[in-house]
Design a protein that fits this description.
Blueprint (H helix, E strand, L loop, with lengths): L1 H16 L5 E5 L4 E8 L1 H6 L1 H13 L4 H10 L4 E6 L4 H16 L7 E5 L21 E5 L5 E6 L6 H13 L1
Length: 173
């Protein structure tokens, strides 16, 4: 009986904490359908409004080759959190370019956490608690223990790959 009760409690807990991936809602602020909460790369690249810019921008972007060589040396077991708005112009440009850099560096998607926000730059279920998100997109680079190394907010200061390299160099200094 205890076993059955334990299994039931585990299943209830899992279903309560389970979150719908690539959730779509109608945002009252933007007055359009948007993505919200945790997303997969496939989810964002198949969302019609985001996809229409993602594909051509991804294809057109050519990261600096010399910078990529350095990124490949330093980008190993980090975790990257991308907070973006499927409605946001800066996100529609910088997210595909950032993924192009990660792909060119051979960085695994399993180490990337993608969170979509609404027009108030909020997500549900406490996903953004402690992240201090003010603008999107925000790219947060953390070490393998989850400690933040640095972030790129809204757009790069130089280029995305140069800013990413500068953050990665911080962890080694």
């Amino acid at each position: 009986m205890k076993f059955l009760l334990s299994i039931t409690l585990i299943l209830v807990t899992m279903s309560v904490s389970a979150q719908e991936l690539n959730k779509k809602i109608h945002d009252q602020i933007k007055n359009k359908d948007i993505l919200i909460n945790t997303c997969t790369r496939e989810g964002i690249t198949s969302f019609p409004e985001f996809k229409e810019m993602y594909d051509p921008i991804y294809e057109a972007y050519t990261p600096d080759a010399a910078t990529l060589i350095e990124i490949k040396k330093l980008l190993k077991k980090e975790k990257i959190t991308i907070v973006f708005g499927s409605w946001c112009g800066d996100s529609k440009v910088n997210v595909p370019n950032f993924f192009k850099i990660l792909d060119a560096a051979g960085f695994s998607d399993k180490n990337v956490n993608i969170i979509a926000v609404d027009g108030n730059k909020k997500a549900e279920n406490g996903l953004l608690d402690k992240l201090n998100i003010l603008r999107v997109p925000t790219f947060i680079i953390s070490d393998k223990k989850g400690n933040e190394i640095g972030r790129i907010i809204e757009g790069p200061k130089n280029t995305l790959e140069a800013d990413l390299l500068a953050i990665l160099k911080q962890k080694t200094s």
